[in-house]
Amino acid sequence: MPIFKKEVVITSIKLNSPQVVVERLADSSINIVELFFKKPFALMGGKFNLIISRIVVDGGDITFKDRTFEEPFIKNIKNANIDIKFSPHKVNFNSDFEIPSKMAMLVKSSGEYNILKKELSVRIEAKDFYPREFIKYCDEKRFKIPDGRIDALTALDYKDNILNVDTGISGSDMKFSEGKIEASLNAVINAKIKYDLISKELIYTGTADIKNLALYNLDVLDKIYDIRGNASFSDKVFNFDNITATILGLPVKARAGIADVQKPVLRIDITSEAKLETLGGILKNKFNIDMPLEMKGSGTLDLTLQYKNITDEQTALNGSLTVDKAIFKSEYGKLPLEDVTGKFSFTQNQLNFKSVRLSYDNINYEASGTVTNFQKPGVQLDLSSDSLFVKTIFSVSDKTITLSELIGHYDDYRFSVQGLIDTADPKDPRADLNGSLIFELAQEKEPYKSFKDKFKDLRLSGEIRADFKLNGSLNDIGRSMIDAQIKCGRLSVNSFKLDNLILDIAQRNSIANIKHIRASLYGGVFEGSGLVDFASKDTPYQVLGDIKDIRIEELKRDTAFKDEDVSGTIQTHFGVKGFSNDFSRLTGWGKLSISKGKLWQLNLLRGIGTLLFRSDFGSVLFEDGSCNFFIKEKSFFINDLVMKSSLLNLYGAVKISFDKSVAASLKAEFTDEGIDASRASDIAGAIERYSIIEVKGTLGAPQYKLRPDLSNVIADIADTYFSQ
C-alpha cells in the first residue's frame, strides 16, 4: 500500500478555470512535466512523496512559451478542457481548447508523452486552424506556410528532436506566393512531414485533391482560375496532373509543376479546344502573335509556360495550334485558304509549321516555314503542290514586304524574284520587283496557255528566259511598268527558227515597246523593233525589221522544199502589223533581194524552166533579184519582181494567198546565150525570146500558160531586118 511506500497518492485533481503557464525550455524540456514528474514531491520533511495520478482542467487558460527560439514564441490557449493521466514515466492526455485568432481555432487532441525518452505521440483534430500563426516552426526558405484556414486530422510523433506528422487537411481560401506569382487554393491535402527541430530541416510528401485553385500575376495569362484536379508534392518537387482550369476565358486541360523547390520554376502545360476565331484573338491580344488571317473552324491550342522565382524576367512561352480542315482568309487574298490541316508551333517570338496541308482555288498544297519577330515579321516559307514549288524569304515592316528571295517552279516554269511590295492598300498591292522567268513556249498549261492562245496561229516554241524589272500594281500587271530582256537560244515561229534571240522590252500602260530585237537566222542576222498592245482585246502588234544574209540552203531545211537543190542569199527590210489571235488580218510591206539564187527546183520556177528550156536548167543562177512586196487581205503581193541571170531575166507580179493559192504574170526575156539553151531559134526564137508566163493553181501544183510578148517580138524582128 502507498502508506508503506511513504507515498501520498492523490488520485485526481480537478482545476476549474485555472491560469497555467507551460514553457518549453531551451533544452526542449517542458516545465510542467519536469515540475511534476522529474522528481516526486516531498511532504512532511521529505518523509513522504506526493504522487498525483490525474489532473483535470475544466475551462482553463494556458499560456504557452517556447524558449528554444532567440525571441520566445508565445501563444495563448483558451477554454482548455484537459484530462491528464500520469503513470510511471508516461503521461496520457485528452484535451480540447481554443486558440484565439480572428476566427477561433478549435483543437482536440489526445496522446502520450514518454518522460524518460522524451517521446511524444499525439493525435490532433483542428478546425479553422491558421498555420501562419505558427510560422516560427517552419523555414520559409524551404516551404512557405500558406495564408488561410484549414481543418486537419493529424497524427504527430516526436522522438529524438524529430517530429513526424501524418495529416489530412481540408483547406479553404489558402493563399500562397512565390516571387510575383500568387495563388488561392481550396483543397483536400494528405501529407507526411518530417521535421528536425534542431536543424529545422523539413522533408515532406503528399497529395492534394484540388477543389478550386487560382493563380495570379502570370504575365500574358494574367490569371488561371477554377483549377481542379490532383496534385502530388514533396520538399523537392510539386506536380499537378490531369487538371482542368479556365485560362483567358477558355476551359482547358493542363499539367503544371515545379521541378525543383529549391530553385522554383513553375511550368504549366495547357491544352484547350476552342473556335479559331477565339484563339486568334487570344494569340493577338495576349501573346502579340498577330496573324494577318481571319480564322474559322476549330483547333487545339497547346501552351507551355515557365515562370522563374522572385524575378520579373519575361515568361518563357511555347506552344502549338493544331487545326483540321480550317479556313484562313487573308486581307491580301481574294480567295480563302481552305481545309487547312496541320500543326503550328510557336514561342513569343517565333512561329514554325511543317507539312501543313491546305487547299487554295481547289488546288491542294503543302506548306512549311518559320516566322520570327512578330512585331516586324521575318518569314521563310516553302510551298508546294503537284505542279508548284516555291521557296521564299521575306520580311514585313509596317505595310512593306521586303522580298529577299522567291524562287521556284510551276510545272516547267522556273522563276526568281526579289524586291518590295507595298500593301498599304491590301486590295491593290504595289510592287517594285526584279527577277527572272524561264519557260517553254510550247507548253499547254496555265498560266502561259492563256497568253499563248493569243498567238496560237504562230505555233511558237522554244525556251524563254526573261529578266525583268516591274513597278506597279500586282492586280494589273498589264498596266505596270516593266523593263525586260528576253532571250531564247532557239525560237520557232511556225516552222521557222531564230537562234540566240534577244529582245529588249519596255512596257508602259499595257503597251510593250520592243526597243530592239536581234537574232541569228539561217546564216544571217535579223534585227528590228516593234510594239505589242496588251490592253486591246485582239492584242495588236507591229514589227519593223531588217534581215541580212539569209542562206536559202539553210532556210530550206524548215520548208516543204527541204530536199530540193536550191541556194542563194536573201536580204530584206520589212514592216508587219497584225493581231495575235487572227493571223488572217496580217498586213505588211517590204523590199527583198536575192543574190546567186539557185531556185529552179522550187515548184513555181521548175514548171517555168520546163516550158522555156530544152536542156538542163537547174544550175542556172539568178545573179541578182529584187522586189517590193506588201501583205494584205490574206495574201502576199509582189508587183515589181526582177530576177536576172546569164540566160534569162524574169519580170512581173505575183500573188500568193495564205491558203497557198498562186496567181502570177511573169515576163521571160532570154539573153543571147539563153536562146541557145532554149527550145527555139531563128524567127521562132525571136518569138519565144520574149514570152509572158501566166501561173495559176497552188504552190504545190502550179498551172502555167505561155504566150509571146508580141510588142517586144516585132521590135526585135525589125532590128534584125534593118541591121541586115
Outline the structure in words.
- The structure is a single chain.
- 9% of the residues lie in helices and 63% in strands.
- The strands form two sheets. The chain has a 41-stranded mixed sheet that branches. It has a three-stranded mixed sheet with strand order 1-5-4, with no helix packed on it.
- Residues 679-687, 713-718 and 720-724 have low confidence and may be disordered.
- It is mostly beta strands and 724 residues long.
How many helical elements?
Answer: 8
Distance between the termini: 198 Å
What low-confidence regions span 5 or more consecutive residues with pLDDT below 50? 679-687, 713-718, 720-724
Number of strands: 44
Brief characterization of the structure:
This protein has 724 residues and is mainly beta. The chain is built from eight helices and 44 strands.
Q: What's the arrangement of secondary structure elements?
A:
Elements (H helix, E strand, L loop, with lengths): L6 E4 L2 E4 L2 E6 L6 H8 L2 E3 L4 E5 L1 E13 L6 E15 L2 E10 L5 E10 L4 E11 L17 E13 L2 E17 L2 E16 L5 E15 L6 E12 L3 E10 L2 E9 L6 E11 H12 L5 E4 L1 E11 L7 E15 L6 E11 L2 E11 L2 E10 L5 E7 L3 E10 L2 E11 L2 E10 L7 E11 L7 H6 L6 E2 L1 E11 L7 E13 L2 E13 L2 E11 L2 E10 L6 E12 H4 L11 E13 L2 E17 L4 H10 L9 E11 L2 E11 L2 E10 L4 E9 L1 H6 L4 H8 E8 L4 E7 L1 H14 L1
Parallel strand pairs: 1-5, 2-6, 3-6
Antiparallel strand pairs: 4-5, 6-7, 7-8, 8-9, 9-10, 10-11, 11-12, 12-13, 13-14, 14-15, 15-16, 16-17, 17-18, 18-20, 19-21, 20-21, 21-22, 22-23, 23-24, 24-25, 25-26, 26-27, 27-28, 28-29, 29-31, 30-32, 31-32, 32-33, 33-34, 34-35, 35-36, 36-37, 37-38, 38-39, 39-40, 40-41, 41-42, 42-43, 43-44
Helix pairs in contact: 7-8
